[in-house]
Design goal:
single chain, about 260 residues, 8 strands, about 40% helix, globular, binds 1,3-dihydroxyacetonephosphate
């Protein structure tokens, strides 16, 4: 049976905890009848505990973090460590998002965070993606170097706790030119798997989920999952409205049913 994983990245939203709890409740309701889909809500750190309480122990819908500090516990004012996130019930941590990279996060900074996340027993959602898509394929080199630096010291045995998120920067946010196409994503996903086969071997490279993120909407979610063969989706703006995210869940369920029938 095909399992579809959706990650909602709320970014710095919503403004208040009460809105976050209401939104989380709406998501939980949307998953009541889901058979194929599960969801991780990547909420701002201050909301993690309360949103986790709203979601309860559901395996279908759980909390995720949007980033982590590159340090262990100690004298690091303002830092949030991977162990702290784990103790709140977080299972997945997004790392290397382009919005963090734009604020100075380097490939080396991503690598250290990946190390901390894996050491704490959590799953890494590693974001990679180019700023611009050139016609000579130079963008593939950017993706390769982001991947290889971030995963430099990761042991093969840890590959089961890796998710790679392809998020082309030009496709993200309100100012995006457009989303990528399912065919465009598919090509890049094949390339990402080829790069992953270097450090992790061909078998793991095929099983590490490669997801798409960048202007995912209820209208295009189904085609990224079916034609694009995306393992999962990372959803930004469209995850800030319970109704639109519920429609994405419905699309995922439709793809799940179709994939099961055609096997
Ligand atoms: P949008 O879906 O708002 O384009 O955001 C994508 C994203 O950055 C998800 O992490």
């Amino acid at each position: 049976m095909r399992k579809i994983h959706l990650i909602a990245n709320w970014k710095a939203n919503p403004k208040e905890l009460s809105d976050a709890k209401r939104l989380a409740l709406g998501f939980k309701g949307g998953l009541m009848k889901a058979r194929f889909t599960d969801v991780a809500l990547a909420v701002p750190h201050p909301f993690l505990f309360s949103v986790g309480e709203v979601l309860g122990k559901s395996e279908r819908c759980r909390i995720a973090a949007q980033d982590v500090s590159p340090v262990n516990e100690g004298a690091h004012t303002g830092s949030v460590t991977a162990s702290m996130l784990k103790s709140l019930g977080v299972r997945e941590v997004i790392v290397g998002h382009s919005e963090r990279r734009a604020q100075g996060l380097t490939d080396e900074g991503v690598r250290i965070r990946v190390e901390k996340i894996l050491k704490s027993g959590l799953t890494v959602v590693l974001c990679v993606g180019e700023r611009e898509r050139d016609t000579h394929g130079a963008y593939l080199k950017t993706i390769e170097s982001q991947l290889l630096t971030a995963l430099k010291n990761v042991q093969k045995s840890k590959s089961g706790r890796l998710i790679v998120a392809y998020e082309p920067v030009w496709a993200i946010g309100e100012d995006a030119q457009s989303a990528d196409t399912p065919a465009g994503f598919r090509e890049v996903a094949i390339y990402i798997r080829k790069v992953l086969s270097g450090p992790f071997g061909p078998q793991a490279a095929l099983t590490i989920p490669v997801l798409y993120g960048g202007s995912v909407t209820p209208e295009n979610a189904g085609t990224f999952l079916s034609e694009g063969h995306a393992s999962c989706l990372l959803v930004g703006r469209a995850s800030l409205l319970a109704t639109s995210f519920r429609s994405i869940i419905e699309e995922a369920e439709r793809v799940g049913v179709t994939s099961t029938r055609t096997r």
